[in-house]
Amino acid sequence: MLIDSHCHLDFPDFAEDLDGVIERAGQAGVGLMITISTSMAGFPRVRAIAERFPQVYCTVGVHPHEASEDWGLDAQRLVEAASHPKVIGIGETGLDFYYDQSPRDRQADSFRAHIQAARESGLPIIIHTRDAEPETIAMLEAEYRAGPFPGLIHCFTGSQALADAALGLGLSISASGIVTFKSAEALRQVIATVPLDRLLVETDSPYLAPIPKRGKRNEPAFVSHTAAVVAGLKGVSVADLAAATTANVHRLFSKLPAGQGKAIAA
To answer: Which among 10, 16, 46, 81 is placed 20 to 30 Å from 90, CA to CA?
Structure first.
């Protein structure tokens, strides 16, 4: 069984085909999907999808692009939303200085609120970082000194320094379809160094379809292609990679019921 640890099933790309997407995921051996919140306005849609499908869980949070729209969001509001039984994580949140769609100070304030919510709830924080490695490392290290929190860097595309900093704080790292791209040799070298017990796989669908699906709309079923490449980097079978990453998801997303997804995949 594989778990797609990060997808966006509420996005319009899936509106006309969501039942088919879920069915194809099961046929591909994907027993569980975590659909990720990007705004508080969109969270009810995310939650409704998780309520509709037993093999789908979700998170609550605000993407850095939306930090201005949800200006003033505090940790308590996130913690309250996370009390729902299908909400198992906080985010995605973080810093994106590539697009700068929200002012950087508002991104940072939102990031801190999410970290505090992760501390208070015990749920993992899902971190997005792009063109902001030094700032992300500095914030994570400063916040960790104020109190530990669980989490992961999703769709990892960063340097060895970022991976080492994240791992040093006890965070996990998730590989997306980017790791399959021909241009991603440097990324593959970093992912190869990540301990097997700290690795997850994801699609970030509908974006970033892996080879050989590149150029198509991504969907959870395609996580198997990413898993095959990551298994090769770690020198293990795809079955062993699937078992390890599934165990890692359950350990990190501790609110998941024990064994959730295995019966569905079977």
So the answer is: 16
Each residue's pLDDT, cut to its tens digit, for the chain (266 residues) gives 999 999 999 999 999 999 999 999 999 999 999 999 999 999 999 999 999 999 999 999 999 999 998 888 999 999 999 999 999 999 999 999 999 999 999 999 999 999 999 999 999 999 999 999 999 999 999 999 999 999 999 999 999 999 999 999 999 999 999 999 999 999 999 999 999 999 999 999 999 999 999 999 999 999 999 999 999 999 999 999 999 999 999 999 999 998 776 543 33
Residues 6+ apart with CB under 8 A from 227: 2, 201, 238, 241, 242, 245
* Nearest alpha carbon to residue 113 among 87, 86, 83, 91: 91
Spacing of C-alpha 217 from chain mean position: 18
Distance CA 172, CA 203 (A): 16
End-to-end CA distance of the chain, in Å?
Answer: 8
Residue 258, classified by CB atoms within 10 Å of its CB into exposed (0-12), middle (13-18) or buried (19+), is exposed
d(C-alpha 207, C-alpha 141), whole Å? 30
The whole-angstrom separation of Cα 95 and Cα 100 is 9
Asked if 49 and 41 touch (Cβ cutoff 8 Å), the reply is no
